[in-house]
User: Fold this.
Amino acid sequence: MINKDLCIIGGGPAGLAAAIKAREEGIEDILIIERDTCLGGILNQCIHNGFGLHVFKEQLTGPEYAERFIDKVKELNIEYMCDTMVLEVSQEKYATCVNTKDGLVQIKAKAIVLTMGCRERTRGALNIPGFRPAGVFSAGTAQRFVNMEGYKVGREVVILGSGDIGLIMARRLTLEGASVKMVLEIMPYSGGLKRNIVQCLDDFDIPLYLNHTVVKIHGKDRVTGVTIAKVDENRKPIKDTEEFVSCDTLLLSVGLIPENELSKNAGIEIDSVTGGPIVNECYETSIEGIFACGNVVHVHDLVDFVTGESYIAGKGAAKYIKGELKSGSDADTINVKAKNGVRYTVPQSIRISNVEDTVNLFLRVDNIYKDTCLVVKDGENIIYKAKKKVLAPGEMESIKINRKVLEKVKGSKLVVELLKE
Assistant:
């Protein structure tokens, strides 16, 4: 049995930032547990730039961004265990983990921060007909093979799904000499950032076909091609629109799922829309003393936002350990609900007594909207309003609300929604 003040599960950008913030808030006894052989998480394979524009005001690659936090962790002498898998987290804040050096280890913590990140949706979730030939990869797996292992995954590539990883891999594979024939997207809009569509597809003349999907994978030993088709408004293939496309590789960029098996088994309440824990203003989950942040809560488009959230969670965990976090009465707690075009908000509740100056609400919309207003309502009273030229599901939005405004809220619920101008 190992006793720790704070145990952080996951050594990616969220876990590193939470650990650093907790140390800066005065927590000395911190342990980061990471299942990979080194710290840094998914950033280690993201060798493209575009990271750090908000946090460091400069463009960094993924490994460069991670290195700054890893160096800080080492400078602060924060303890970490790599190559260690956490098997279970309990409501009593026990973490059971295993590695080849120590065997089975149980850690008792005063507080836990969950930062397990997310995983890719696989071919098995799509039910695409065909055999199981070589050459079908999730986009993130292909990214690791190319950027970290040094393998070339294919010569003629079709990408299904226009999430950011798929868009980035379209460019990466082109630069490696592969022919990326097309990117297909079942929805009428892209799931990725606008800048990635421009820099990764438009700049390399790679076509993006919206309202299209793969309906069959051909080949037995290796992919020989795919049959694609247009889809209707219900995302069902339209008859007589099928077309065969020759290729030896199919990349799937069809969504990310927060990695919450540990959370669910611990009894933490999960949001049905985000797939992550329901959290409050300090990113504390439904179990007191267990916090969560980053992609394990909801999938982000920018790592800078992950870092910002993780600072809040790390500070919240530090306050909890020191007995400074206020539990909040019903009168002090405001629930936040999404409505009319807004898919979800994070956090889902706010305890006013724990808000120092402002609280940031993160959200995503459910479609592309133009010339609309994003509002926050207390009953019929609008407490926040912002005109938006374009809102898209692939780009996360944020709303900053001042504590003084929250103190004037009359009800126990805020609604975030879209209104026409």
Observations:
- Residues 1-120+256-323 form a domain with the FAD/NAD(P)-binding domain fold (CATH 3.50.50.60).
